[in-house]
Amino acid sequence: MTTIVIAEINNGSIQDTTKELISAAHSIEGSPVLVVPCSDPSIADGASNFEGVSQVIAAKSDVFGSYDASAWADALDSV
User: Fold this and answer.
1) Cystine design at 7: which of 2, 18, 23, 33 (Cβ 3.0–4.6 Å)?
2) How far apart are CA 21 and CA 44, in angstroms?
3) Alpha helices (runs of H) in 1-79, residue ranges in sequence order
4) More reliable by pLDDT, 40 or 69
5) What confidence tier does 35 reach under pLDDT thresholds 50, 70, 90?
6) DSSP 24-56
7) What is the DSSP secondary structure assignment for residue 18, as one 8-state letter?
């Protein structure tokens, strides 16, 4: 089973709570996959050095520039 963590982004940067989620996911089942919802994939670059992550996926879409639950769900579902 693969555990997926969706990064918390605020003002174009990954928040520290994401590391807490990674740590919790790691204790459940190995190294999780981190999905970074972003309109600029360089935001995901900083996550590549997070300890305990097996893979970082930049879910790039313009919908992440504002909050629309349905659009976010569709974009994340495509990952």
Assistant:
1) 18
2) 16
3) 17-28, 42-45, 69-77
4) 40
5) very high
6) HHHHHSSSPEEEEEESSTHHHHGGGG-TT-SEE
7) H
